[in-house]
Amino acid sequence: MLTDTGASAHARMTSVAAVSLAGDGPLAALRHRALEKTIPSMGAIMFDPATAHAGENFRVAAGDVPGEHNGPPFMDGDLYKWLEAATVAAAETEDPEPRSAVAEAAKVIARAQREDGYLHTKTQIARRHGDDVEPLAIGTDFETYNFGHLMTLACVHHRVTGDDTLLAVAIRVADFLAVQKPERLAECNVCPSHYMGVVELYRITGDRRHLELAATLLDLHGGKGGAGTDDNQDVLPVRDQRRAVGHSVRANYLYAGMADYAVETGDTAVVAALDSIWDDLVSSKLYVTGGCGALYDGASPDAGQDYYSVTKVHQSYGRPYQLPHTTAYNESCASLGLVFWAWRMLIRTGDAKYADEIERVLFNALPAMVGYEGSTYFYVNPLRQVRGLTYPLRRPGDPRDVAPPPSDRRERQEYMQACFCCPPNIARVMAELPYYVYGQGRDELWVHQFVSGEVRTSFGGVPVTVRQRTDFPVSGDIELSVEAERPVRGQLRIRVPGWADRVEIDGSPVEPAAMDRGYVVLDREWHRDAVTVRIPLRPRLLTAHHFVEEATNQVCVVRGPVVYCLESADLPEGTGIEDVAIPQDANITVTPGGGMFAGHALLHVAAAVLPSSQSPLYAELDRTPARAIDLQFVPYALWANRGHGEMTVWLPLIRTLERSAV
Q: pTM surpassing 0.90?
């Protein structure tokens, strides 16, 4: 289970462990590819001393073999994330290899841990070589980031296997943190996954010391005033924060940890902060694909406490509506952090708006992060790729590359030596996709996402199996069959997506009185029953707020939760993406996809080709009439899988093709 909030005082629901996905839909296919290709191939990289060196670092730290530390200081955490993915995958295969790999890694990790509970291979290997380095002395050594991923891994590993090897290690790490000086904890909170980790330890152990540690850590985060930075969200105390700012991964991890704490304590000040930050994000700083963190490097406009001071921002949220397309950063880990945060908000409130944002990421940002073949990855996720870009767009490349690709080529990579944090995060979210589909409350089952498969739960202690059958998002038809061991009363709560015009249940439109916070509530006696859900899907043209300057007078094409893009692979030779516009009254037809697009619908748009815009910086308008063209649009989720080329999500809007020809 992703989280276990069954005993949490302020949780509306908890994860469901007994879930399986089936069918050819994109989420089921993505997960199948993760189990078959992504996780095994990534494991080979993690344990290859000549590549990632992640596993080898622990062997060196444990004294099993001589050697040096290799890789960034957060590589420990990246291995923990992969082990979490492998733990979940191993439970669903008869192949003993992944189970053996996890078990062996757990033993090495335990051997590497110091007697006082500290565990960080970079520092321990340095000390083994005689260097005078101390734990928690360098904030950017990411020790607590690594600790948090270890704690989360340990909880998942214990729930899946029953083994307590890693759980014992994680508890000792938490005990180490609990006796550290507050000023050290306050300086070592970069990318604070440990806030989530210690709360999950509390849930699995029931030991209130872990919840008290979470309270201490949150109290110590922020309140630095002019000495703080937006980059690390520590200018204001966490309870006083109201906006999504700074490094987007660090931000979303912080907000997820705050949400975990609120689920356990109901802290009203934390809840007020989270609600305001959430509203700020989704109303003005979130990409239509679920991308988070628009900006590369720069200066914070707000963290400086006077006119003459500025502070750095990196991979960060910017000003409201500051959402560029070509230079969009959108680190993969940031969108995954949004899922972690949204899931915890959903658990606490039961409000469908949080499941809507999870859906946005699952159908757009997440699958775009990994290649169709399942073993290459994006670190950054733009909404537009253009040819001939005259300036480099930084990527976490391999310094051993003697001939990196041209600056205008964003291509997925199998391994990123400088920073491999995103791929194992992608792997664990894909492995844990079933946990995001349903929620379980007291005699109630929540249907958050639409994907074929099966879930086992209970109403009033009576075993209940619910099977979902759908080809969503090709269509919005969902069939739910409910089989209870004997007649029993319970509630089935089915999400009505925020993008849906209407929803029908068993042929009748859903009335507002039958809904609660975006969910249709079916409260009845169940035995051998079926429920038919119909969510009409239609292509729609979305516009952006007029403050989003790069999208002014532009539209993007969506259908259901799926965002579409135009790639140069679907353009005639000599036509660039900058030459295409969409008429306001464009006819859009839908066809089922095949090959890599199986499980998706493809859209055919009656678009227009404008005169070429290749010109000097400024030029007189070319009044050549636009010409009609029929173009295929494909899901953004699968862009950059047909060779190098251009791509755009947003396109100019013209009123009608006929008028443009006058």
A: yes
